[in-house]
Amino acid sequence: MTKIMYDEKNLTMEIVGHAGHHEPGIGDIVCAGVSFLSQTLLKNLMIYEDRKWYELEWDMDAPGEMYIHCKVNGYYSLVTEMFRFVMVGFRMLAEKYPENVKIYEQEGK
Questions:
Q1: What's the CA gap between 80 and 13, in Å, rounded?
Q2: What is the per-residue burial (b if ≥16 Cβ within 10 Å, else e) of 1-32?
Q3: Which residue has the higher pLDDT, 109 or 91?
Q4: Residue 14 or residue 108, greater confidence
């Protein structure tokens, strides 16, 4: 089971675990979807990091885990929309594969 914890107020996302939709090594479409969405968010945040709109903290050291946090210095709504965009995809995965993806959300401001 993949667990996605998202705190919109603090712009923090933590993703833990493997979806377990297929046997290891066969190609888990759910894990692939989660990985693609989370890495897209991280890459997008890294692209704009030099503009100093936020301070980006992230960690992907352990397999099946990712942590992203933005301390916003300005443009809160723009950064929030980056997170919201990938959350749409995560919600679609959780709806289609409820035994493999669970989302825990805290509302924004």
A1: 12
A2: ebebebbbeebbbbbebbbebeeeeeebebbe
A3: 91
A4: 14
CATH for 81: 3.30.70.1490
According to the model, what pLDDT value does residue 31 have? 86
Ordered DSSP codes for 30-97: HHHHHHHHHHHHHHHHHHHGGGTSEEEEEE--STTEEEEEEEESS-HHHHHHHHHHHHHHHHHHHHH-
- Determine the Cα–Cα distance for residues 103 and 94; give it in Å rounded to an integer: 7
Domain count for the chain, please give it: 1
